[in-house]
Amino acid sequence: MDLKVIPNIKNLESDNFFLIAGPCAIEGEEMALKIAENCVKICDKLKVPYIFKGSFKKANRSRIDSFTGIGDKKALIILKKIRDHFNVPVITDIHSENDAELAAEYVDILQIPAFLVRQTDLLVAAAKTNKIINLKKGQFMSPESMQFAVNKIIKSGNENLMVTDRGTMFGYKDLIVDFRGIPTMKSYATTVLDVTHSLQKPNHTSGVTGGFPNMIETIARAGVVNEVDGLFIETHFEPENALSDGKNMLPIKSLKEILSRLISIRKTINSFKS
């Protein structure tokens, strides 16, 4: 996919990786706008193409009492406000065929969660909105098997898509990133590495997902070295107080410094091609 098809994406001339970043879930308008503002400023300064991410609802929670959202329409209106106010592309995940049609009115990119990437009806419904589609690789799938999910989108008449690795199940309560999957999936579509979800510790005994945020830069560096097209990083001003996935988020105060180092790595890798 040519990144130029993404509405309002900037800084493509820099030849940097692109960044998908934002909170796990939209918790309210003030927090979402504040995170977006900071990410936009950082990415414009560093010349990183930027896409704001926020889930308008969270359907795949371990516990019935976990936070699922502030209301679908309310959260989608906030996403549209971010898109219009900051003039940046926006992505959100969907969980049903009805979600596809609803969310498509407010965002630029529809994301298929990893657990649902084999759901044919959902993929077809997303593709038919003519929005850009981001397919997250199932934790239970090999990189090679993602070609079939990609083909479902293409055969539904939509060639504007990307795929995202978010780690593979490795025994109980752990994930591992197999970096051999990056070149494999790049042969199918634009490829993103979801750094923060790859560091989850799933199915924790309390029913709340754990994580290893101290390893965010380690995983991101390896992704850049292996020429991933984009990085996906969930970030928050107070990860410890986030209502979803706080234990594997990056504190937003660390974003600029980490991105700066990753950009240096990217420049070195690009120099090998000269």
How many helices?
8
The CA-CA distance between the termini, in Å, is 23 Å
Please summarize the sheet with the most strands: 8 strands, parallel, barrel
Shape: globular
Helical residue percent band: 25-40%
State Rg: 17 Å
- CATH C-level label: Alpha Beta
What's the β-strand tally? Answer: 13
CATH superfamily: Aldolase class I
Structural class by sheet pairing and helices: alpha/beta
Strand order, biggest sheet?
A: 1-2-3-4-5-6-9-12
What can be said about this structure in brief?
This protein has helices at 29-46, 72-86, 97-103, 120-127, 146-155, 181-186, 216-225, 255-271, and strands spanning 18-22, 50-53, 90-93, 109-112, 132-136, 161-165, 168-169, 175-176, 190-194, 200-201, 210-211, 230-236, 250-251. The chain is of the alpha/beta class.
Overview of the molecule:
This protein has helices spanning 29-46, 72-86, 97-103, 120-127, 146-155, 181-186, 216-225, 255-271; strands at residues 18-22, 50-53, 90-93, 109-112, 132-136, 161-165, 168-169, 175-176, 190-194, 200-201, 210-211, 230-236, 250-251. The chain has 274 residues and is α/β, with parallel strands linked by helices. The strands form three sheets. It has an eight-stranded parallel barrel, surrounded by five helices. Strands 7-8 form a two-stranded antiparallel ribbon. A two-stranded antiparallel ribbon has the order 10-11. Strand 10 and strand 11 form a beta hairpin. The protein is globular and about 45 Å long. The relative contact order is 0.15.
